[in-house]
């Protein structure tokens, strides 16, 4: 005898909790109320954010950083811009790391991601050299 109960629906993944009022300008509520909006960024819970930041801090190569960057865009819709700044690069502070604005993205997350990448660049300076060489800075030709 077949069951007359509807099949169970798949459980929704947990969404990021709200920031305290006045602490953030992420427009989470507006994003949730918009029909057809891309909610992937809300899948980055605080726990998942901690794991992501730890992974970014421990990056060992530019290729690994670029893979994580691509996965962030694919899974969360987060887009980064990492490259030499508009002026000459004399230190790691001359490398521009931007997390592009996106509804639902917490202000603190937007600050923490570049900070974690800078930690990785300090730990492994070869990543910064490879990043600068992407544009042919060290090209011997």
How does this model look, in words?
There is one protein chain. By secondary structure, this protein is mainly α. Helices cover 42% and strands 7% of the residues. Helix 2 runs parallel beside helix 4 (107-123) and helix 4 packs across helix 5 (125-133). The radius of gyration is 19 Å and the shape is elongated.
What would the keywords be for this entry?
141 residues; mainly alpha; two-stranded antiparallel sheet; 5 helices
Secondary structure layout plus pairing:
Blueprint: H1 28-33, H2 46-57, H3 62-76, E1 80-84, E2 95-99, H4 107-123, H5 125-133
Antiparallel strand pairs: 1-2
Structural class: mainly alpha
Strand content: 5-15%
Mean pLDDT: 83
* Main beta-sheet annotation: 2 strands, antiparallel
Order of helices and strands: HHHEEHH
Radius of gyration, whole Å: 19 Å
Shape: elongated
Q: Uncertain spans, ≥5 residues at pLDDT below 50?
A: none
| Cα distance spanning the termini | 76 Å
Strand order of the largest sheet: 1-2
Q: Given the structure, what is the number of helices?
A: 5
What is the percent of helical residues?
Answer: 40-55%
Total strand segments: 2
Summary, kept brief:
With 141 residues, the chain is mainly α.
């Amino acid at each position: 005898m077949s069951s007359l109960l509807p099949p169970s629906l798949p459980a929704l993944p947990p969404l990021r909790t709200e920031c305290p009022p006045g602490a953030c300008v992420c427009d989470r509520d507006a994003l949730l109320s918009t029909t057809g909006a891309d909610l992937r960024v809300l899948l980055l819970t605080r726990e998942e954010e901690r794991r992501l930041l730890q992974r970014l801090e421990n990056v060992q190569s530019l290729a690994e950083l670029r893979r994580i960057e691509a996965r962030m865009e694919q899974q969360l819709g987060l887009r980064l811009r990492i490259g030499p700044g508009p002026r000459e690069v004399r230190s790691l502070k001359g490398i521009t790391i931007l997390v592009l604005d996106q509804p639902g993205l917490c202000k603190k997350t937007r600050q923490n991601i570049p900070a974690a990448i800078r930690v990785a660049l300090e730990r492994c300076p070869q990543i910064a050299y490879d990043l600068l060489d992407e544009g042919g800075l060290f090209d011997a030709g």
